[in-house]
Inverse folding.
């Protein structure tokens, strides 16, 4: 895993996580985000390759060590809307994650890099989610979660972080998010 782990300086400043009731990532009692599998360690490229491929192909028969995040807020917001429409009654929220607070030992991977370098076979319907996706292994600390915005406007825990150059947002999204305050 070390070969593909991104150095802290290679990470975007902010990542975005879509959390919804049917997701395989759960919220810990302390507010952390926890992957389904927190014990398996992949030391060989072949096993990491299989784990990443199954995760990125949304294999529900597989317990994953990964938590999917996006580097683009607008893209994450669109994904949240899609999740909300697919799972009509579920609670959907957009979490803003500050990568500097993930910690020096955080295992974060670029989905694009894993797909390219490991030559992963990604199903057509999942290919669109690869660009700008980052996989965080095992856990995201509650300290790294800076904001939660619900589509139902039920909870907003922290003030929003300013947009960075890496963020690309659709017209009107910034105004909508500001109206939630």
């Amino acid at each position: 895993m070390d070969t593909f782990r991104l150095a802290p300086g290679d990470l975007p400043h902010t990542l975005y996580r879509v959390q919804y009731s049917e997701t395989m990532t759960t919220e810990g009692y302390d507010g952390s985000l926890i992957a389904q599998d927190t014990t398996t360690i992949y030391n060989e490229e072949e096993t990491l390759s299989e784990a990443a491929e199954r995760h990125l192909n949304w294999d529900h028969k597989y317990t994953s060590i990964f938590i999917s995040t996006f580097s683009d807020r607008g893209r994450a917001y669109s994904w949240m809307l899609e999740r909300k429409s697919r799972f009509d009654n579920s609670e959907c929220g957009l979490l803003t994650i500050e990568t500097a607070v993930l910690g020096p030992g955080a295992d974060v991977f670029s989905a694009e890099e894993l797909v390219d370098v490991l030559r992963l076979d990604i199903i057509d319907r999942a290919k669109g989610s690869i660009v700008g996706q980052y996989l965080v292994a095992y856990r995201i600390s509650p300290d790294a979660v800076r904001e939660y915005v619900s589509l139902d406007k039920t909870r907003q825990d922290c003030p929003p972080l300013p947009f960075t150059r890496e963020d690309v947002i659709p017209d009107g999204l910034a105004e909508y998010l500001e109206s939630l305050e």
About this structure: The chain has one domain: 8-179. Residues 154-159 have pLDDT under 50 and may be disordered. The two ends are 40 Å apart (CA to CA).
